[in-house]
Amino acid sequence: MAYSDKVLDHYSNPRNVGSLDKNSTDVGTGLVGAPECGDVMKLQIKVNPATQIIEEAKFKTFGCGSAIASSSLATEWVKGKTVEEALQIKNTEIVKELALPPVKIHCSVLAEDAIRAAIHDWKKKNGSADANAPATAGAQASH
Amino acid sequence: MSTDVKTLTQEQRTPAPDGVKLPIYMDNHATTPMDPRVLEAMLPYFMEKFGNAASRNHPFGWTAEEAVEQAREQIAKLVGATAKEIIFTSGATESDNLAIKGVAEMYREKGNHIITAVTEHKAVLDTCKRLEKYGYRVTYLPVQKDGLVDLEDLKRAIDDKTILVTIMAANNEIGVLQPWAEIGKICHERGVLFHTDAVQAVGKVPIDVNKDNIDLMSITAHKIYGPKGVGALYVRRKNPRVQISAIIDGGGHERGMRSGTLNVPGIVGLGKACALAREEMAKEGALLGALRDRLKDRIMSRLDEVYINGSMEHRLPANLNISFAYVEGESLLMGINDVAVSSGSACTSATLEPSYVLKALGTGDDLAHSSIRFGIGRFNNEAEVDYVADRVCETVERLRELSPLYEMAKEGINLKDVKWAGE
């Protein structure tokens, strides 16, 4: 399969790879997908409590090149946005930006899920009223 | 706490050693490059010796027929058959179809039961599935963890309606060699015909249709350094005399079993490829086995949590199939884009399902997604093997740094205990 230049670029030089302290109150963690399905994304955000702005974002992804690129792009896009703005990011925008073929659309869906799950986790930690709203919250490590 | 990960830039990659030309082809179970000696044998049959082997009344036809008969002889010799038992086809998919459908139709009055195994090639499985629609009964034998069928399962599956057992000699993904001689013995004791798809085995490991009690056997040229689009079916002529119905109707070529003008240059190529294999198989097998072990050892000495799929003992010398835990196969292929290998990952398959062969072994879906198949071939060398091993290792290391699963495993989390959202 031929990949778009943008997918190749994100795959070769992924942005914002790494981990934030998941126990920190300012950090929201989203873990979506499943190993059996061939893709798992962990996306973390660090939110400034005063401004609600996402100041840092990190990801790690197990998955194909398109999954890695989608999550890498997602971290780029959420950075500098408020949590409410970040919730507006749609998977279709990721598809467009990365020129993903139809068989890879689920990678973009997973990236959108990861953003939502991370924000959900952050809201839950910070006692937000609508924290229980999105049903897209990802896997919870049961340890 | 925030951790950052360094990424591997182009400059940090292992450089290709002198004499190694990129990209490297190491996907010889998919197809093999042509051997120049095979091409040389074929060339005259495109232009000056263009005749139709079925033209009985002029020298153009005789020349073509002579070449075809020589090829028949070359193929027969490689597998211990007689020339008359070799039927030319367009390749192994057709050979499998002809063998299974041909026997099914011819022996319909004797019975309607066929036995095969879950790890067969789709050319066999889908042919069997089609026959199920027409009232045939098919038993799909499971395989053990090492990929081999259990002979006791086979014995139990044979009943008085069984007409055919079709089990491959060597698997195309994991290179595992089924005990075909034992299977053949069981079949003959029970009066059941035995077909084997031996596409990956012929010319790689010794096979003898008489010693091994094989009644029908599919062969193709393009897995043994010959051209694509030509294959053969061995059909036993005595003890027992096997009869098959044709699936292509026409001019009655190949003694009525396969109509259609013969692909003379292709057949010459298949014959030459078999002749070369017969001469060189023993030596080549040892060489490729050493290269395969070198690849395996170089990878396994550097990386932890890599798992070999299928038996190492009963295996083609040139096959290696490994799962690299916590790394998805397609992304690994993307990272080693100057090396041609295959993956059992869903993302690399047309069906978006991970390899059914690996699943049949009990390999979890997660490890099936992480599998890579290496097929070493006649034209690979040590320098290439070392380069491939190093490129694979550095890419796995990089992707593991990117993998949340690897991070969780390192933290001591048992991934099996995690409740995943996607399940």
Secondary structure topology:
The complex is a heterodimer of chains A (143) and B (423).
Chain A: H1 5-12, E1 18-20, E2 27-34, E3 39-47, E4 54-62, H2 65-78, H3 83-86, H4 91-98, H5 105-125
Antiparallel strand pairs in A: 2-3, 3-4
Helix pairs in contact in A: 1-2, 2-5, 4-5
Chain B: E1 2-4, E2 24-25, H1 36-42, H2 59-79, E3 86-89, H3 92-106, E4 113-117, H4 122-133, E5 137-141, H5 151-157, E6 162-166, H6 180-189, E7 193-197, E8 216-220, E9 231-235, H7 264-302, E10 306-308, E11 319-324, H8 329-335, E12 339-340, E13 342-343, H9 356-360, H10 365-369, E14 371-375, H11 382-401, H12 404-410
Structure characterization notes:
- The complex is a heterodimer of chains A (143) and B (423).
- Chain A contains 5 helices and 4 strands; from the N terminus they run αββββαααα.
- By secondary structure, chain A is an alpha+beta fold.
- Chain A has a single domain (5-127), classed as Sufe protein. Chain: A (Alpha-Beta Complex).
- In chain A, a hairpin with a 6-residue loop joins strand 3 and strand 4.
- In chain A, helix 1 (5-12) crosses helix 2 (65-78), helix 2 packs across helix 5 (105-125) and helix 4 packs across helix 5 (105-125).
- Mean pLDDT of chain A is 90; it is low at 133-143.
- Chain B is of the alpha/beta class.
- Chain B has 2 domains: 10-34 and 280-415, Alpha-Beta Complex (Aspartate Aminotransferase, domain 1), CATH 3.90.1150; 36-277, 3-Layer(aba) Sandwich (Aspartate Aminotransferase, domain 2).
- Chain B is 37% helix and 13% strand.
- Chain B contains 12 helices and 14 strands.
- In chain B, strands 3-9-8-7-6-4-5 form a 7-stranded mixed β-sheet, with helices on both faces. A 4-stranded antiparallel β-sheet of chain B has the order 10-11-14-13.
- Chain B is globular, with a radius of gyration of 23 Å.
- Strand 1 (18-20) of chain A pairs antiparallel with strand 1 (2-4) of chain B.
